[in-house]
């Protein structure tokens, strides 16, 4: 909610700075951002009482001298002859109607009303609606204005049983009501979706001079969810959902009359009231010992009582909760109130020492599986559980994000295959991934924690593994080390229907953790724990280009020197380099070393010319080493 | 190409993979809490409304229970847990205080945009004993945050609202660019919740807190887009080993 500092300060006698007010609001728990002297407030859902200038000023009364009295119209008001029927008294225990008629149309607004629109950059509608919106901002109570001349008769019914389902809102939106909603009707026609939005047919316009202003207290439970159901969220529904002051309606209408009277001569003012029962204020014990115990403080009785009084509570033998604080029900609530006034940051910490609990490892097997696989070069992935595959035992999501995410997955393997394809498209030629996750099925919602692994491509980026393929044998031999025979469960995933140009075969397995218990129920070296210090560098979505270079070394004493140089190269756009081939001819004593250099830019697709230049920069100093050559390289570069 | 037996054959360093950065962060926080005395508990991701909401004092009228915030499954018989708190409820029902539990794992909310994911991770802790108070909760939170971000980090406690704690607080840390960032929610367990779990609220009090793992991982690793965690891109995962 937007609240202008300039408007708020009118209630504060001392005129504190915006920075000071901001700090105090945070202390009280009212999160906000400030933009051009406007507080963009984010109130917690339990604090409907703060959704107005007056509500916020009431809170700031803790810190500043305030003037919370608004000018209201005080004279006795004649009773309005209205044929009102309330069929949902439980949901609307208090409602008032004001009939107000003005002699002339209002064309110019007083400063305070005009500035409400200009300071908050809001559009005006018509005089009565503008006053209604201003009062909602100022006092937190929504009102709805009807053009009374557009009524068929003087009857209004508040009901949740209707015959007619079509309704056009005052914002010209057609709604098909489902017949369960609380609505106002006039002569059997729906004129207002109660607490949410009024109807077009009886809405005020610039011509309106005879208005009927409705001001009600609706139970939050009777409003919640309805605005979203019809996608007609309004300021009124937001306020009613969070709860307005059940004692405020008449005062708000008297303020309405006052504002109208400051703009035009009033020719008629009549009031109708319908309150089912008298409001009983909640009363709570004064129990400072308990409050200090909850907070861990040692505050005095006077400090406590003063804090509550400043927040609007009446304190004598008991604590009387103000009508606008429906959120306060017990001593813990009062402890929070007191804590807010003291300031959470001003409550000193006290040492905490937890009792010694038995620390039994609940996920030992899972941790061991992870350690084992990570040591073997596998990467753990995490996938969403949503999918569009409906199997016999799939669990259906009743309210999916979209039609592609209608079910919960019954297998992890499919997610991993998608991950492999995703990485193949990014030119990855050695993929080893795994995921451990709960998998659910509809038969009794049984949870089964499973491990899935997928592999594809080369075994590794080194000269020993480069030409070996990740296959069934590789995967089964991994688990044979642990005396686990999983070979029969390994699947060669058919690639025909998969969206991948890579010819590498994908092998995958999915297995219950409980079936792996025997192999992993012992000590494994844990994974290195240094990940949390890593600073991530954004990855590139541009393609990689690789260059293979074969070095011929006649003097075997410089082989290690060359390898050291190649392993420590740091060139522009060089993403990865590794030795993919090593061969020593014992007859000629010539060693051949093959290196692959992979390049990638963060901002563009690299051209061959650019890469050739970088490769030249890499190899030129190397070729100065005696006995090192790159057969065919010069020719290749010259040709391009 | 075949290899002869060259005694000078270069050594091959097998490259390791990595634990997913979110799981690593989750495990590291849970291990920290284990070291304080919190015992790890686990529970299902598919929950009943009773454990996910009712027992936690989240009334039927609360916005969180609406279809637009929570995933319902199996003809509204269950929900995908919206927090790991139901795990704590189950453990409180099964144990007698004093007790100190930590739960961590996947949670689900019906959200999917640049800054919100339909699935994310939480770690939550609860400590129930006879004499515990908000001042001690602050001590615990300072310990956790200092351990995560170092003792130079500035933090502030703000009053907030959670149906299951009262008083409730949110904790912000001051980032290097001078902005306060919300990092953690905590509070004194609402006595209604203790009573729901057959723990006498006149005799016992509870302290509870919860952290969103993705937020912390993003801050610690400098990841700007939360969605990067779940693309399974090897270039991304390779950076966390």
Helix and strand arrangement:
The complex is a heterodimer of chains A (640) and B (241).
Chain A (H helix, E strand, L loop, with lengths): L1 E3 H4 L9 H10 L3 E5 L2 E5 L10 H8 L17 E2 L3 E4 L7 E9 L8 H9 L7 H13 L4 E4 L7 E5 L6 E3 L5 E3 L6 E4 L2 E5 L3 E2 L11 E8 L2 H4 L2 H4 L5 H8 L6 H13 L4 E10 L7 E2 L3 H8 L5 H10 L3 E2 L3 E2 L10 H12 L21 H12 L3 E2 L5 E2 L7 E2 L10 E2 L4 H12 L5 E12 L4 E12 L14 H9 L10 E3 L12 E7 L4 H4 L24 E9 L5 H9 L6 E11 L6 E9 L8 H16 L4 E2 L3 H7 L1
Parallel strand pairs in A: 4-15, 5-8, 19-23
Antiparallel strand pairs in A: 1-3, 2-3, 6-14, 6-15, 7-14, 8-11, 9-10, 11-12, 12-13, 16-18, 17-18, 20-22, 21-22, 23-24, 24-26, 25-26, 27-29, 27-30, 28-29
Helix pairs in contact in A: 5-9, 10-12
Chain B lengths: L20 H16 L2 E3 L4 E2 L1 H4 L19 E2 L4 E3 L4 H10 L4 E10 L10 E11 L4 H16 L5 E8 L2 E10 L5 E10 L1 H6 L8 E8 H9 L12 H4 L4
Parallel strand pairs in B: 1-5
Antiparallel strand pairs in B: 2-4, 3-4, 5-6, 6-10, 7-8, 8-9, 9-10
Helix pairs in contact in B: 1-6
Q: What does this molecule look like?
A:
The complex is a heterodimer of chains A (640) and B (241). Chain A is α+β, with helices and mostly antiparallel strands and 640 residues long. Chain A has 19 helices and 30 strands. In chain A, the strands form 8 sheets. Chain A has a 5-stranded mixed sheet with strand order 4-15-6-14-7, with helices on one face. In chain B, β7 (155-162) and β8 (165-174) form a beta hairpin. In chain B, α1 crosses α6 (213-221). The radius of gyration of chain B is 21 Å and the shape is globular. At the A-B interface, α10, α12, α13, β19 and β21 of A face α1, β1, β3, β6 and α4 of B.
């Amino acid at each position: 909610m937007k609240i202008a500092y300039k408007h708020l300060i009118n209630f504060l006698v001392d005129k504190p700075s915006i920075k000071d007010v901001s700090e105090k609001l945070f202390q009280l728990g009212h999160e906000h951002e400030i933009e051009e002297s406007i507080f963009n407030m984010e109130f917690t859902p339990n604090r409907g009482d703060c959704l107005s200038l007056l509500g916020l000023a009431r809170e700031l009364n803790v810190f500043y001298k305030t003037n919370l009295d608004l000018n209201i119209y005080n004279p006795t008001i004649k009773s309005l002859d209205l044929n009102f029927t309330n069929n949902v008294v439980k949901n609307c225990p208090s409602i008032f109607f004001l009939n107000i008629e003005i002699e002339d149309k209002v064309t110019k607004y007083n400063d305070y009303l005009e500035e409400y629109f200009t300071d908050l950059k809001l559009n005006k509608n018509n005089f009565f609606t503008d006053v209604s919106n201003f009062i909602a901002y100022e006092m937190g109570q929504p009102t709805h204005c009807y053009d009374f001349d557009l009524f068929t008769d003087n009857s209004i019914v508040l009901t949740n049983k209707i015959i007619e389902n079509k309704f056009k809102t005052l914002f010209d939106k057609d709604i098909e009501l489902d017949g369960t909603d609380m609505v106002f009707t006039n002569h059997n026609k729906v004129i207002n979706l109660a607490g949410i939005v009024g109807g077009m047919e009886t809405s005020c316009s610039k011509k309106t001079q005879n208005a009927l202003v409705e001001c009600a207290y609706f139970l939050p439970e009777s409003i919640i969810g309805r605005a979203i159901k019809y996608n007609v969220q309004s300021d009124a529904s937001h306020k009613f959902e969070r709860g307005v002051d059940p004692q405020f309606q008449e005062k708000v209408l008297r303020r309405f009359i006052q504002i109208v009277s400051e703009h035009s001569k009033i020719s008629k003012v009549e009031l109708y009231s319908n309150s089912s029962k008298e409001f009983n204020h909640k009363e709570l014990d004064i129990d400072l010992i308990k409050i200090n115990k909850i907070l861990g403080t040692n505050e005095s009785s006077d400090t406590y009582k003063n804090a509550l009084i400043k927040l609007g509570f009446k304190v004598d033998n008991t604590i009387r909760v103000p009508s606008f604080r429906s959120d306060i029900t017990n001593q813990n609530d009062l402890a929070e109130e007191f804590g807010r006034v003291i300031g959470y940051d001003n409550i000193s910490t006290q040492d905490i020492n937890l009792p010694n609990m038995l620390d039994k490892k609940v996920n030992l097997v899972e941790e061991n599986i992870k350690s084992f696989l990570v040591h073997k070069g596998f990467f753990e992935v995490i996938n969403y559980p949503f999918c569009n595959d409906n199997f016999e035992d799939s669990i259906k999501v009743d309210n999916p994000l979209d039609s592609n995410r209608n079910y919960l997955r019954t297998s992890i393997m499919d997610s991993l295959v998608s991950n492999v394809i995703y990485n193949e498209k990014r030119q990855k030629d050695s993929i080893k991934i795994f995921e451990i996750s709960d998998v659910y099925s509809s038969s009794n919602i049984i949870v089964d924690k499973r491990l899935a692994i997928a592999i594809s491509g080369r075994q590794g980026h080194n000269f020993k593994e480069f030409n070996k393929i990740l296959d069934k044998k590789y995967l089964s031999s991994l688990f044979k080390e642990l005396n686990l025979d999983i070979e029969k469960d390994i699947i060669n995933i058919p690639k025909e229907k998969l969206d991948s140009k890579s010819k590498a075969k994908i092998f995958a397995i999915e297995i219950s953790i409980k079936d792996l218990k025997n192999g992993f129920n012992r000590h494994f070296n844990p994974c290195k724990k240094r990940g949390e210090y890593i600073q991530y560098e954004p990855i590139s979505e541009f393609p990689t280009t690789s260059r293979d270079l074969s070095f011929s070394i006649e003097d075997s004493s410089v082989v290690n020197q060359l390898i050291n140089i190649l392993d420590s190269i740091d060139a522009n756009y060089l993403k990865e380099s590794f030795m993919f081939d090593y061969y020593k001819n014992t007859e000629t004593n010539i060693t051949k070393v093959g290196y692959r250099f992979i390049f990638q830019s963060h901002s563009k697709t690299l051209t061959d010319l650019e890469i050739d230049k970088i490769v030249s920069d890499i190899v030129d100093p190397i070729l100065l080493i005696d006995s090192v050559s790159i057969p065919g390289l010069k020719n290749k570069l010259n040709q391009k | 190409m075949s290899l002869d037996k060259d005694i000078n054959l270069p050594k091959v360093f097998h490259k390791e993979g990595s634990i997913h950065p979110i799981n690593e962060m989750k495990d590291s926080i849970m291990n920290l809490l284990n070291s304080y005395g919190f015992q790890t508990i686990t529970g299902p991701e598919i929950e009943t409304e009773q454990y996910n909401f009712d027992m936690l004092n989240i009334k039927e009228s609360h916005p969180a229970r609406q279809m637009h915030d929570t995933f319902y499954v199996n003809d509204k018989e269950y929900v995908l847990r919206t927090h790991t708190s139901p795990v704590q409820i189950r453990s409180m029902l099964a144990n007698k205080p004093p007790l100190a539990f930590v739960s961590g794992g996947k949670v689900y909310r019906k959200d999917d945009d640049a800054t919100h994911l339909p699935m994310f991770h939480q770690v939550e802790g609860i400590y129930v004993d006879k004499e515990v108070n908000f001042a001690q909760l602050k001590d615990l939170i300072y310990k956790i945050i200092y351990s995560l971000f170092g003792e130079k980090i500035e933090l502030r406690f703000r009053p907030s609202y959670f149906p299951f704690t009262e008083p409730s607080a949110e904790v912000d840390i001051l980032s290097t660019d001078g902005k306060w960032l919300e990092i953690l929610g905590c509070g004194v367990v609402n006595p209604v919740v203790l009573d729901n779990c057959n723990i006498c609220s006149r005799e016992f009090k509870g302290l509870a807190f919860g952290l969103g793992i993705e937020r912390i991982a993003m801050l610690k690793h400098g990841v700007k887009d939360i969605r990067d965690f779940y693309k399974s891109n090897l270039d991304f995962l390779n950076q966390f080993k």
